[in-house]
Amino acid sequence: xxxxxxxxxxxxxxxxxxxxxxxxxxxxxxxxxxxxxxxxxxxxxxxxxxxxxxxxxxxxxxxxxxxxxxxxxxxxxxxxxxxxxxxxxxxxxxxxxxxxxxxxxxxxxxxxxxxxxxxxxxxxxxxxxxxxxxxxxxxxxxxxxxxxxxxxxxxxxxxxxxxxxxxxxxxxxxxxxxxxxxxxxxxxxxxxxxxxxxxxxxxxxxxxxxxxxxxxxxxxxxxxxxxxxxxxxxxxxxxx
Length: 240
Ligand SMILES: C[S@@+](CC[C@H](N)C(=O)[O-])C[C@H]1O[C@@H](n2cnc3c(N)ncnc32)[C@H](O)[C@@H]1O
Known about the structure:
By secondary structure, the chain is α/β, with parallel strands linked by helices. The chain has nine helices and seven strands, in the order αααβαβαββαβαααββ. S-adenosylmethionine binds at residues 18, 21, 25, 67-70, 72-73, 91-93, 96, 113-115, 130-132, 135-136.
């Protein structure tokens, strides 16, 4: 794709967004984990544990990590379900899944699209999505798909970027994400992808809109919790 086209990944929608995002993650797969660690000061592991706790997983349950990428949600999920349980990861980007393969001894990974899950209805007790929902072409449809594949009483948690509600913090964050993060990405030759991060966050649904989208999909008891001064937000809900 020509550079001029790639500058607008965050402005794309529908099928165009799907293929642009898929290509972008294929390109950044080798440096994704390293940059994730640097940009979050390694705090992302703690945020993932917080999210997994909200799933209230019981030993023996089945969990799906959707948009699993390089698989950092898989070890805490595996620990939560225990030996009698089952965890599977789904992502539409094979190079990301190849990295996930190395993280758990018996990974169950599949390629698949969040908006059209290759999974039977009511197959999982818990679904996690980390930094994935922002990237899908149709968030409402992805929420309906997640609802469909959960059993009754199933839990869903989604962790993603958010815009701080405090105006001073928002100005500070926008400075960091619009200037420092793309510069960090450029060290790895990934300026585009790490410009996509702040731009897609600005275009992303608000906390309230995400809650409404989850409720319209059928989730109840939908809540959210801010992390990192409101730069990250966890949403969770229950399938009644
Ligand atoms: C920012 S990464 C997050 C990876 C991982 N969840 C984590 O916590 O590090 C976003 C992931 O979502 C995947 N993704 C984006 N859109 C998708 C879609 N429509 N269907 C499936 N996977 C998708 C990308 O391929 C990428 O691996």
